[in-house]
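Q: What would this chain look like folded?
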Amino acid sequence: GPPAGRHHMQRSLAKRLWYHFLHILCRTYFAAFCQVRVRGRDFEPSEGGVLLVSNHQSHLDPVLVGLSCRRRLNYLARSTLFAFPPFRWLIQSLDAIPIEREGIGMGGLKETLRRLRREEMVLIFPEGTRTANGEVAPLKPGFCVLARKGRAPLLPVAIEGAFAAWPRQHGLPRPAVIHLQFGPPLRPEDVQRLDDDQLVTEVQARITACHAQARLFVQRATRP
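A: My prediction, written as structure tokens:
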């Protein structure tokens, strides 16, 4: 296999430049329309595979988490999103990993593990779908197998304000104050020590704690 630390070289220069260009474009959009703050960024491991676990408030979330990370992020995307040609072209250009609506599926599982072993960062939303009310919903256990087989730290992150910016029933996003809070990662040896129920409970607690902090900052920032 490729030497450690050289994994990013597997992507063409064009793809790396494209990711960088979109990064700048999205950053410009959020700077113009939203007040985005990120806390706890130092919890992001500087190298090695990382599985990011986040709450899911809106369609903006993958972009927000991607902009908040120092390293390039890999995204899991519902296979139904690949049905619309312009969007399929976009997410394929970002190397998105297709997953089934019911869960990750074998193909998505294998590709996610491949990227983790290539020492990349992968984002997953364990709630499985966007929140209906802005709160953190119960997590589905699908991420447990990734955490165990990938032997990568689990990095919790929570988003608050994206639901106000783009709730499910709205066609287009609107300006909002958005905060992202990262928490301490769960080490691979901690993951191996817990059974699936304990792991889901632990990750739920960490995402919820991050969310409570993020919500506090949004409330302070929007107080009249």
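Residues 1-6 have pLDDT under 50 and may be disordered.
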